[in-house]
Amino acid sequence: MSRHILHVATNITHFDNPMHPTGLWLSELTHAWDVFAARGYEQHIVSPRGGRVPLDPRALKWPMRDASAKAWLADPAKMALLSSTPCPADINPQDYDAIYFTGGHGVMWDFPDSEGLQAITRAVWEKGGIVSTVCHGYCGLLNTRLANGSFLVSGRKITGFSWTEERLAGVSREIPYNAEAEMKARGALYEKAFLPFMSHVVADGKLVTGQNPSSARATARKVASLLG
């Protein structure tokens, strides 16, 4: 029986400053998609509002524009998946074995307070599915609570784009909050690689998280290994 993966992507096109574009960090989707596709998994994409998923221009430049990203950009069927995505209300979480939150800075604005995404995540988790994120995707778990009222991330090991990496990326003054600090405030046991921007994956049972864009493939491989 084929496994089913639900990818989550942003609808946000820019920072608070409209002159600073953002969107999905494409390789964080394509690298995972490739891993899951090689195993024959069925995959779908959802976004907080539904509709178009913009692409972060920085992710379309070398070296981020790698073979995987180029192949997606050259495939009209794949690009169509990003031009018209369903919204959470269109999704039945019982259909999915795992949810995978992609990143790009845009998610900092539209992932945390999406009650629809929270409901899907809670349902996947509480039926025994896998919850996974990469890079800024972990912002999608900031406000997700379980049926008992506790934060999903409380007391669990997690990683995601670090404050050090935000500063090195030169955007620490433009983002709406420090995601690493907010995770810790919710009781998450945050971990990061010794060196910034290096691949780093943390698995705590059914919770699988990757620190940055370099971690997408390894995150997906860990999810696949757990799915069996």
UniProtKB/TrEMBL annotation:
Keywords: Glutamine amidotransferase, Lyase, Stress response. SUPFAM superfamilies: Class I glutamine amidotransferase-like. One of its GO terms (cellular component) is cytoplasm. Gene3D superfamilies: 3.40.50.880. InterPro entries: Class_I_gatase-like, DJ-1/PfpI, Prot/Nucl_acid_deglycase. CDD domains: GATase1_Hsp31_like. It comes from the Bacteria. Residues 27-224 form the DJ-1/PfpI domain. One of its GO terms (biological process) is methylglyoxal catabolic process to D-lactate via S-lactoyl-glutathione. Pfam families: DJ-1_PfpI (PF01965). GO terms for molecular function: glyoxalase III activity. Belongs to the peptidase C56 family. HSP31-like subfamily. This is Type 1 glutamine amidotransferase domain-containing protein. It comes from Komagataeibacter nataicola.
